[in-house]
Every structure is written in structure tokens, then in C-alpha cells.
Amino acid sequence: MEAAVSDPEHDLISELQTLLSQGEEEALQIFLRLIRPEDIAGWLDDVSPDERQRIVEALDHDAAGTVLSDTTASIRAELMEDIEPERIARIAEALPADEAADLIGELEIEDTEQILHHISDEDEHVLRGLLSYPEDTAGGIMNPEVVALTPESTVDDAINFLRFADGDTITAALYVVDEARHLLGFVRLRRLVTARPTSRLGDIMSSDVITVGVDADQEEVADQVDKYDFIAIPVVDSENRLLGAVTIDDVLDVIEDEASEDIYKMAGSSVEEEDSESIFHVARYRLPWLLICLAGTQVSTAVLQFAKGSVGLYEQMSVFTAAIMAMAGNTSLQSATTTVRRLALDTLPRSRYLVHVRREISVALLMGMVCGTLASGLGVVFGHDPVIGLALGVAMALAMSTASLFGTGMPLLLSLMGIDPAISSGPLVSTINDSLALALYFSVATGILLWLG
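RE: above sequence
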């Protein structure tokens, strides 16, 4: 019999829980020093709120900062409530400026001010500057700690500066600025270390600098970094003065946040529900869309009521309403999802909007003809009136094509209006598709019955 394979992480969590249950605080501190803070952050879900607090108290300022930054928003908020303002100030000082601003920026204004009061004047000035920018802009995610020297500085000066730079300083590139901090160019590290020590930075710099404005949306920043494969991109104000830089790790966080936001919007909810434990808080985001959908279903009900009194063979036809709505809904979802995805990846220029719409409708029409033919045949096989089969086949092809038009066109229209197209895949669109599919089904059936006399 083979011996069970031990899971190292599970063993470490078990050891942590043992130390917590025994109350060995000194042993706990020693144990936590041997563990990466990023791993500790992931373990906080496995312990009680009181034990989380004891873990954070056992960490030094550097490790505590990393743990608080990497854990979930709900756990972070819970922990921050019980940490003294002065301790939070020390933790913030140990973090990179952008992460420190994110940490204390989540607190109430009064609490933020109290923490800033305990921070050194220099760091306080930097943090207040970062907190003044909206959190979803380049200014809100940038790190102001960059290497910036004048054109007259030599390569030797730059290397000496890098040698003694703070660990949180961005060193992916060295930026060249004038006395007023206007950005003139940059020098890559490879160029720096291969140049003569006496060379001036102004002579070896590249002046073709791609920047983002401090007020640029974080999604635009992520697009620029992805497009040019940057490790960091400089952030400037309206007068081209260097304010800081956004690094690839910040961009990865932005991509994750934007993807989560889009997914929640597609579900008719909000990303803010993710870390909420209150059922009322979650319902507050989901319920409005569902109430709108409830109102929208009355259109479908009205169509059915009208058809019941006006369309012959209604009883037999009503058997297939679920199939019509399901096929139209799925087709719309496919078209909407692919369109939203292409818009998110910026692979669908406006000049090709009409081409994309034609393509999606053509695909849907082809699929609708195939599905409609099969559905029509099944209707006859199961003993329904041949008129039902004919109406079902034609209506399904038309409903799927119309649903595709709606699923493709809505994201494109919202994009042109400057609205996030992700909401076009939500419950509201599904409800509209159901109503349209039913209306088409019974309209086609009525037309065929009248045509056949």
C-alpha cells in the first residue's frame, strides 16, 4: 500500500492552527517570520476573526503591510477596525506609496486623517497627493517613487543613485527631467550599464517617450502597457511634468479588477458584492435588475394572452415556447459575449462594426436554419400539426437571427455612447430577447395560418 503524499501547505496551516490554539505568541512570531507574507494572506480565510487579528499582531510592519494588501477587502476591513491608528501608520510607511494610499484610502475620512497625523511629514505629503486622485485613474494607481535625474547627470551619477535608492523605487527605467521636472526622455537599464561612466544622460537617453496622463482611466493605462509590453509607464500632468509611474504588477491588478467588474455587470450585479457578507447588501445590487426583468416578463405574458385568443392551434404551439426562448436567448448570449470580449480587448475597431454585425447575423441565420429545420421535423414526428412544424422552423430561424442582431448591436451601441458594454449581456437583455422571440413565433404562426387560409 502506497504512503499518502503530504501536502506541505496543509501541514504549515495545521502547524499555524496548533500554535494559535496553544497561545504560544512567541513561537507564533518565529513561525510567521519563516513564511512568506503572501502565503499568510491566503491562510486568513482558514482561521477565525480573533486568530486573524493575533496573526497580524505577530507580524512586523513590512509583513503586516503585505498581508493586509493581499487579503480580501472584507477581511482587510475587519482587521483594520481593530488595529491602532499609530500601528497602521507604521505599516503604511513600510509599504510602497501607492499601496499605502490604497490601504488607508479604504477607510473613513476621519480614520484616514487620524492615521496621516501619525505619519512623517514627507510621507504624509506624498500620500495626500495620491489620495487626491480618483482610485481608478493613473494617478490613483501610480507609484511616485521613480528615478528622475537631469540631462547633465552622468552614467556614474545614475548608477550611484540606483545603488542607494529605496527598495520601493521603480528602477525599470531611469527618467530624464529638467529643473521643473518636465519629462525629456528615459534611459533603459541595459543602455545605462553599457554606456561609458562619464557619458551624460542627455546624450544617451531616448526622447521617444510614451506616457499616460494622470487623469487617464486605469483601463487605458493597462491597454498602453499591454500594447507596448512595458514594465512601467510614466505618468505626467497636463504640462508633461513627471509625477510617477505605473508598473506591470499594478496593471495586472487593474486587469483582474476590470474583468471582475465586467463579469458582475453581465450578471446584473456589482463587484462590490464580492466581499460582502450581508444578504441585504448583495440583494440591493441584484434586485433592481430583477425587478426590471419582472416588469419585462409582462410583455411576454401579454404576447401569450393575445396569441391564446387570436392564434389557431395555440395549445399545440405553446409547447414549443420554451424552445424558442431558449434558442434565441443562447444565440444572443453568444453574440453579446464575443462582441463584449472583442471590445474589451480592443480588437474591434469602429470601422469594422458593421462587418462584425453582418458576420454575427449570418452565423445566427445559418444556425437558425439548421436548428429550425430540426425543430420543425421533430414537431411533425411528435404528432403536431404540420403548420406547427413549419411555423416553428421559420420562427426559430428568424428569432435566432433577431436575437443575434440585438446581442451584437447593443454592446456596440453602448460602446458608441461611452457606456460599459458589459451590461448588455445582463438579465434585461435576456428578458427583451424572450419577448421578441415569442412575438416572432406567434406572428409567424399567424401569418402562415392566414396564408394557408
